[in-house]
Amino acid sequence: MHSKKRGPKAAAGKWQTPHPGPKSSAIAGKPGENHPPQRKAGQQVRQPEPAESPEAPTGPAAEDRAARAIQGAFRQLRARRELARRREERREYLEQMEKLQREAYLALVRREQEAARRRREQEEAAQRERREELQRRRRLLDAAFDGDLSEIRAVLKEVEQLLTREGVGHDEAGNARRLQRRVALVECQDSNGNTPLSEAAAGGQPLAIQLLAELGASPNSKGAFGRTPLYRAAFGGHLEAVEVLLKLGADPRVYAEDGSTPEQVASLDAVVSVLHSWDLSLTEAMLQNMEAEQQHRAQEAQRHKEAEAECMTLKVQQLAREQQQCHKELQQAYCELSRRISEHDQCEWRRMDKTELTLQAIKDAEDQVDRLQQEARKAEEALALARLALREQTQDGEEEAQGLKCQVTELHDVLMKDVGNRIQADGRPGGYLPALPGHQLRGHSEPRAPEAGEDATGSSGGSAVREAAGV
């Protein structure tokens, strides 16, 4: 009875911890539900182990610290080696630059020495030629006075051989040049203005007079004190020489500076008689023939000069075309070099394994540019010298004026470059024109390389050369 009374009271109280043992059917749940198997009495319920909570980091382990220290030391070692390598490359680069500068300076000195040697050799050759020409003239004058015909012919033969060595042919132009040189030789003068024919007349050498006249010497040339060959022959009393001169066209009416004629100064009566009885109509006819011959020679010389000027003009035009072609190729080479530099920059930016190939391509392009620069410089020098030769050839025979005569398109060659050293030879310093803005003549500017940071199209790409050079 007592236990029955306590049952509801216990149920109305606090929740009691179930006693281990079999559960009542009320707690078993609904039929059909799956429940874990019931444990036997006396077995303890195994509580689930709580999950392990992550421990707070307490710092790297000793192995990690050692690995990090090794990595840091290795990186420092690699950095020191890389720094040493770069310093060594920098040192080698500086040594190479110093070596190249020294070689360039020595090459410049050698080039200047070679140019000075060539100028000295040219001056010595010119002086030697002048001495030889003076010696030939003295020989010719002495031989004419002495009547030595073999010596006269020997001197003329030397001149012919000299012209042959100079490349003068035997065609029409060559024969005209030979005739001009031969006439200039037989018309040479001594310090007193006397010609070889005048010396032969003074020496009384009729055969020499005849030979020199056949070679183109004038029988009416005036020498010292305005005396003609006929005057000197009459004064010396050389009758045969007077007769030969009269037959060759010597004019007995020509006065000397003192107003005397050959007849008045003749030292022999036979000479006076010959001069007095000479038919002047014959002299007039021979003078007309000589004047016509001189005009013919002048026309031939002018025609020859015009032919040479035309040939020189064609040569200048050909050299101008070659120079333009060289400048065009040089500009294309500059553009190609700029493209190669851009390709190298792109390869470095994309980290491609083709930098060696691009650097080699840049080197090849630079070599091409250097070669074309030398060719363009040579073509420009050849063109400037040809223009100088043409200018001097066209100015021959014109009235000389003070200064140098040239065209506007040739001012750069004359003033800035002094081609042929004409200004320096005239006693004026060459290249004195100030570098005013726009002094460069249009149409004569040299091709330039693209500016740093631009190529043929204006795009950037100029760091490859500096990086390849190590600067």
From TrEMBL:
Keywords: ANK repeat, Coiled coil, Repeat. Residues 1-73, 425-471 are annotated as: Disordered. Residues 83-137, 282-310, 355-396 form a coiled coil. Signal peptide: none annotated. InterPro entries: Ankyrin_rpt (IPR002110), Ankyrin_rpt-contain_sf (IPR036770). ANK repeats lie at residues 192-224, 225-257. The keyword Coiled coil applies. The keyword Cell membrane does not apply. It comes from the Eukaryota. PANTHER family: ANKYRIN REPEAT AND PROTEIN KINASE DOMAIN-CONTAINING PROTEIN, PTHR24198:SF193. This is IQ motif and ankyrin repeat domain-containing protein LOC642574 homolog isoform X3. The gene is IQANK1.
